Amino acid sequence: MNIQRGSKFKPEKDYYKIAGIILLVGLLQFFTVLNLVETQYPGYSTSINTISELGGSIPLLEPSSTIFNLSLIIMGILTMVAVYFILKSGGCRLFSACLLLFAISIIGIGVFPLYAGEIHSFFTIIAFISGVLAVIFSYRLGLNIPMVILSLVVGFTALITLILTFSWGLGPSNPLIQLLGKGGLQRFIMYPGMLYLIGLGGYLTSRGEDWVRLRFSKGYF
Fold first, then answer.
1. Which positions of the chain have pLDDT values less than 70?
2. How many CB atoms lie within 10 A of CB 47?
3. Beta strands in 151-219, from DSSP E residues, in sequence order
4. What is the pTM (predicted TM-score) of this model?
5. Is 180 part of a structural domain of the chain?
6. How confident is the model at residue 1, as a pLDDT?
7. Is residue 182 included in any domain, yes or no?
8. Considering only CA atoms, which of 57, 166, 170, 64 is closest in space to residue 116?
9. Membrane-spanning regions, if any (predicted)?
């Protein structure tokens, strides 16, 4: 029986696991802050108000606006770190490029809030497009069949919604805005993809050996 005690037991590095944990932390902290900040915004409506208004409304609601923008930046930075470990594990470059572009755009949204005008809109559009493509191309990470199906359903649903939104515009004549409101439409595009990325983070953490079980099954303790 092999006996290795305490810190001497060092399993091989599993970078997919590290990437998954970092992705989970980044996205979960954002959703936590998002829910907190929404409660501090007087009269906020998830249908009428966009997500960006939480960090860039005029006048600013402090400290909520600063907390929200910092949370966006943290999510972007952690997602970039997750991309690094995915590439280090030999993950798909196409997926990684899309996720990296999404992360950079999220940081841009946090650095240039809604009141920044066109530059904020630019980063928002890039975040929409790159986020949707990252969800679609995640199947190239060697996922199991249920995750592949989920990525394609979520990704293409968001992509079709995004195309229709660009085609019909953001005016009141857009049928989707009439149905969901501008804030509701934005969430319909962003939330499923971001929730899928949380699920992907959880999936990646399960890649490789289960080292806790290995300690008992192979005599390590």
1. 1-14, 207-221
2. 13
3. none
4. 0.85
5. yes
6. 41
7. yes
8. 57
9. 15-37, 67-87, 94-116, 122-141, 148-168, 188-206
Q: Mind listing the pLDDT tens digit for each residue in 73-124?
A: 999 999 999 999 999 888 889 999 999 999 999 999 999 999 999 999 999 9
Q: At a CB cut-off of 8 Å and minimum separation 6, what does 185 contact? A: 161, 165, 174, 176, 177
Q: Are 215 and 8 in contact (CB under 8 A)?
A: no
Q: Which two tokens stand for residue 148?
A: 């592949």
| Domain around 42 | 13-207
How confident is the model at residue 217, as a pLDDT? Answer: 52
Q: CA-CA distance, 181 to 170, in Å (whole number)?
A: 10
**Do the beta carbons of residue 1 and residue 189 sit within 8 Å?**
no
Longest dimension (CA), the chain: 72
**pLDDT in the model for residue 173:** 85
CB 30 within 8 A of CB 79: no
Give the pLDDT of residue 141.
87
**Has residue 215 been placed in a domain?**
no
**Tokens describing residue 133:** 């493509």
Q: How far apart are CA 96 and CA 5, in angstroms?
A: 37
Instruction: Give the closest residue to 200 by CA, choosing from 79, 42, 20, 72.
Output: 20
- The answer to whether 120 touches 56, Cβ cutoff 8 Å, is yes
Q: How many domains does the chain have?
A: 1
C-alpha to C-alpha distance for 145 and 153, rounded to whole angstroms:
12
